[in-house]
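User: Can you write out an input/output pair for a complex, sequences first and structure second?

Assistant: Here is one pair. Inputs:
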Amino acid sequence: MKISKLVGKRVKETPNNATIKSHILLLRAGYIKQVGAGIFSLLPPAQRVSLKIQKIIREEMNKIGGQEVLFPVVMPRELWDMSGRYSSIKEEMVRFKDRTGHDMLLGMTHEEAAVHMMMNTATSHEDLPVMIYQIQTKFRDEARPRGGLIRVREFTMKDAYSFHTSQEDLDVYYKKVYDTYIRIYKRLGFKNFVVVEGDNGIMGGKVSHEYMEVTDVGEDSLVICPKCGYSSNMEVAVSVKDENDHTIAGEKEEVFTGNAHTIEEVCKFLEIDAKHTAKAVCYKTATDGKLVIAFLRGDHEINESKLAKQVKSELEAVDVEEEFSLPAGNIGMLNLNVPEGSHIFFDLSLKGLENLVTGANKKDFHIKNVSMTRDLPDVNYVDISLVKQGEKCVRCGETLNLTRGIEIGNIFQLGTKYTKAMGMKVNMPDGSAKEPIMGCYGIGIGRCLASIVEEKADDKGLIWPMTIAPWQVYLCPLRLDNENVSAIADELYKKMEEAGMEVLFDDRNVSAGIKLTDSELMGMPIRVVISPKTLSNGTAEVTMRGNEKEPLFIPIGELIPELKVMIQDEIDDIEEYANGKNN
Amino acid sequence: MKISKLVGKRVKETPNNATIKSHILLLRAGYIKQVGAGIFSLLPPAQRVSLKIQKIIREEMNKIGGQEVLFPVVMPRELWDMSGRYSSIKEEMVRFKDRTGHDMLLGMTHEEAAVHMMMNTATSHEDLPVMIYQIQTKFRDEARPRGGLIRVREFTMKDAYSFHTSQEDLDVYYKKVYDTYIRIYKRLGFKNFVVVEGDNGIMGGKVSHEYMEVTDVGEDSLVICPKCGYSSNMEVAVSVKDENDHTIAGEKEEVFTGNAHTIEEVCKFLEIDAKHTAKAVCYKTATDGKLVIAFLRGDHEINESKLAKQVKSELEAVDVEEEFSLPAGNIGMLNLNVPEGSHIFFDLSLKGLENLVTGANKKDFHIKNVSMTRDLPDVNYVDISLVKQGEKCVRCGETLNLTRGIEIGNIFQLGTKYTKAMGMKVNMPDGSAKEPIMGCYGIGIGRCLASIVEEKADDKGLIWPMTIAPWQVYLCPLRLDNENVSAIADELYKKMEEAGMEVLFDDRNVSAGIKLTDSELMGMPIRVVISPKTLSNGTAEVTMRGNEKEPLFIPIGELIPELKVMIQDEIDDIEEYANGKNN
């Protein structure tokens, strides 16, 4: 490809509204262009990366028996009514009426379509296990698209669905996909990723894992044990809570706290530490508007995902004074007067504590010296707080690391939620009919592309792993007005293409500065510079992107075979890493 | 691939609602499954064909400098407001509001997105010509989806857009794409297709061509000259009208025709031939409701596409009595009293005619002996009738053939409609700024898949060309309960895969009848049968699909190399045909 004809311009300036590395660089290097909020076009270099990512994913999915199919983007309501998700998924799902007035939707995920395909297709236990997958466009109407390709509304996704006759069979296959995903990310060039226990969200089911690229710009909070490997999304992470005061409580005592409402204010007013308080966090259920109050130690934060699971409903903000006549800022664990059907929870962080300050359920007052064991002996403690910095691993006791990550893939055990809802059964050897147990497995292509940029790129530009680089070589002749340079550049370009290399040929007659800067911005793994100076020694200057300080000077006559070796070495390194030989 | 695990079941029965060959066979052979009206899932065999079609298209588009990109399926209204198509395209385009209330749409085509990508990307004449293309999902809310994959609402399409600084440059490139398309269809295995002049419809622009698979089940009417190669979509086809009565007219005379209103009734009543009448066909314009009357010879039919172009509006049905107080069935060319702004047209078929019968514009009466030259000397004749069987080629005078076809692709010269509307300009050498001239080029993947079935399949099932077959070989051991058969089959399967062949292995222990029938239904190009009988001679029976009557018996030891030669020969034949060496 000649850069003079390549669609996409490089720009120097950091684009407006772009704050994270991958977003800035992909825009600046001419890889993507925004069409709307969370909607992008891919220019040729990005589409080349995307196709290479897809190819690797296909190879790996096929290796574990995956059969590629294609589901529709647009589906009729009926299919999603069967699973109940037509109504349970809110505004994230796009709905519209077709010209006949029929309710249609844009698929956010394809469990229903997968079961629809397998119904009457797999009818016997002998037809299972089976895994089908597709690579297709999805649209999710995200409330807050951000970060370029990191969180978009429209994206290309590989989604896969497996069907099994027993939990054991699913477990075996799930592990296979688990390992295959690791191989996929390694082949794409990822090094800095972890697998964490995940939250199942709208998918249903119990076991799930998320593949997380560890990076400060990630939206997800992760909890990782550096010793035993325990790793989890914060939404479902557990921990050993830190030590606290378990000395016997004094007498309960109501104290005036006036306008001190937040934990900070109360602690300041009473001159105590937040860990000696029990705070109340209030919501209402999205399903039926019931009051939800969670009590937790004052220095802990509520984990809304866990709390939502306790009440089996999304949570909404509540104005407790307006809606439930409760004294906001003074709500406490004792003498709490709430309507029937309200949900009251006590977090594990409170277990066994003494001498706590809590609201008095009375304007301007708190109560001191509350004892969980003496005053609330019958409480059922649940885990509804976020893991805190400094807490210990429940498995090995090591201090946990808190970090952030981008979810680059996920795998779920779905159980029989969809097959049962849609009435899919297979005949078993004993003559009975059984709903197959499903797994589902997703990878967002564009998010992988952006995440690898987050991991690799430097302050000069993109750095692509050899396996997914748009082109392997950036051929960069300087001084194309020099006839010798021009003739040799043309010949090298021709020979490189004939040798099967993927070459981006900078055929512009512009300054060396522009060319070298662009080569770094665009990120091809190998750069070949020829100039009157290098040619005076009969060589080309070859550098690896990210390692420009260590050039090799290779005689022109040996260049093509040398480059072939370098390319293959890079690929071999990545493949060996993926095969676990150098882990 | 082992057929026991292949997703998709073969069925004997013709499915309900399926009437055409490709629809019936693709359903019966387990290639597709319907999800909604005009919406299908592709099962693994169909997806394999689709990917092979895409690969060939990519190769050919890349050869002529195409750069692959990806546009979004969902676009914001603003982009389509710029071209005016947000309002000009009617219910075929899906519109919806996103969660913020923003107007969004599903792309039916991507001219706007292509210009959006090129704006500020190609800024100089030196950046052009350039062609970008994508392979992506489209949704068009067709009023009458039908025929399986022939006319669907959701489909995968290759759409390409080229940008040029002059009409001459577009003409040169357009011809390149024209030829490339012929190569593509030939490589896909098509033999029975023609290129016809097309109608530009909603795309704008002037020159266009349609690639038509010639088949009785096609929705389009085609006009083809068997001598000089003139070929056209009926919508825009022209012809030399047949001879007629040009003798001098007698005196005009009003005659009572009573309830005779249609041309057939009037002719019967007056005992004359339809070619001696002038009939009126009435519409109103969709844009502003003006009356449109087209007069044409009684034995000709109106060409609504041509008429719509004359009035620059879609046409709607009209009740002339109710809405315009005209005597339906008695409307004629003389003394016609219509509101100002009405459109009156006279078809070429009436030119120079004498002694015509036409309505008297008076209930129950017609007029005889009307002379076009004497009574309507100032008429401007236009071409608004369909080409009729028996009419002659305007180029060479040969009698034209009328036939039907499926549109498998199209190419358009768009002019500057979109670049002008969206304000895209490039700097020219003389310092001026110019709107680039565009071409656009489409191929529907699924429709190609179904059309090749229409061309090739026989009454037993599908027949795939080697270049796009899901698998090249159907390995069909009979009597798998026989240990010798079973062992040799397993070994052959392994060796074939090792040799890089694509093999569908019928590993089921079912009757020979089921296996042979399924092999014919599924349509792989080569079938290899082994059985106790063939093995007793040390051979396998090899047949080509569609030519089962001429089996080859090949010694097992020579089978693999022989099959490799057969596969390569088939591919070579198709490639040679595509390269024009055996045309």
